[in-house]
């Protein structure tokens, strides 16, 4: 992977988007196994309905992991200094997540050249599911 260079990055530059397939029950089951998060709201239809949800839905941390993939597709993980995310909506079955990032600031801190990236995970209808920001060190 060839990470971008600080001098080549400009405020407003966009990271290559990460478009993912629609969330389905298999995705949720695999994430449960990988994460150890077996909360029944994500895998048990009857439990979800008792909680007044129409069906099971994706773990918020699954979408957070997708945002992590967006970042590490742009720079090596060792260059990520901070990630802050807030959950803004439920990712339902059939939603197709797309993760995007935009450079919002360039600065120096702790002897490093860094950029701040605004992060977004939205579904195919443009509805935000997660918003956040990351700080990344560039050379």
TrEMBL record:
Instruction: Tell me which residues make up the MaoC-like domain.
Output: 23-116
Example GO BP: fatty acid biosynthetic process
Q: Name one Pfam family in it.
A: MaoC_dehydratas
* Name the UniProt record assigns to this protein: Dehydratase
Q: Which InterPro entries would you find in this protein's record?
A: Fatty_acid_synthase, HotDog_dom_sf, MaoC-like_dom
**Which Gene3D superfamilies does the entry mention?**
Hotdog Thioesterase
Q: Which domain of life is it from?
A: Bacteria
Can you quote a single GO CC term?
fatty acid synthase complex
Any GO MF annotation of the entry:
fatty acid synthase activity
Give the matching SUPFAM superfamilies: Thioesterase/thiol ester dehydrase-isomerase
